[in-house]
């Protein structure tokens, strides 16, 4: 019996990984995280749901897209991504864009209606995230957009 349990656990992990490998949304998130724009575009054309939250952080692709650049954010927004989508920690794309000092992405997200008052579970607001980036222009911009 003790030998069966580890084998069963390994089999379940294998099956889970196979099912994720065939999942369009999982692959879309992976493509964005790897900076593979062509693959992301193909997966969206195949029907990947740009708003589906995937493991391990239960986040839609838009939340992490700012780390890879504005082109990924624009692709997702063009395909009806919810720009105010939150991950399991209530972090939004705008918080991440502020945190990583992505001024062009911050401007775009705000122009598209992103919530400048978003706060994640660590009490990090968009303004706090901008301050952590140490980008003075971004800090001024996010303040002028109403962030507190």
UniProtKB/TrEMBL annotation:
In terms of Pfam families, this protein maps to:
Ank_2
What InterPro entries does the annotation carry?
A: Ankyrin_rpt (IPR002110), Ankyrin_rpt-contain_sf (IPR036770)
> What Gene3D superfamilies does UniProt report for this protein, alphabetically?
Ankyrin repeat-containing domain (1.25.40.20)
Keywords, ordered alphabetically: ANK repeat, Repeat
Mind telling me which residue stretches traverse the membrane in this protein?
Answer: none
Its GO biological process annotations read: protein K6-linked ubiquitination
Gene Ontology, cellular component aspect? BRCA1-A complex; BRCA1-BARD1 complex
Q: Is Repeat there in the keyword field?
A: yes
Q: State the Gene Ontology terms under molecular function.
A: ubiquitin-protein transferase activity
Q: Which spans of this chain does the record mark as coiled coil?
A: none
The protein, known as = Uncharacterized protein
List the source organism. Answer: hydrothermal vent metagenome
């Amino acid at each position: 019996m003790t030998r069966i349990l580890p084998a069963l656990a390994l089999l379940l992990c294998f099956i889970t990984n196979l099912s994720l490998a065939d999942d369009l949304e999982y692959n879309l998130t992976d493509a964005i995280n790897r900076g593979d724009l062509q693959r992301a575009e193909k997966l969206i054309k195949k029907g990947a749901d740009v708003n589906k939250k995937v493991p391990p952080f239960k986040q839609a692709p838009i939340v992490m897209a700012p780390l890879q650049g504005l082109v990924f954010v624009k692709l997702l927004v063009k395909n009806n991504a919810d720009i105010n989508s939150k991950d399991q920690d209530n972090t939004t794309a705008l918080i991440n864009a502020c945190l990583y000092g992505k001024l062009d992405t911050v401007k775009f997200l705000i122009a598209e209606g992103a919530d400048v008052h978003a706060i994640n579970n660590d009490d990090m607001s968009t303004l706090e995230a901008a301050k952590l980036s140490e980008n003075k222009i971004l800090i001024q911009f996010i303040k002028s957009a109403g962030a507190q």
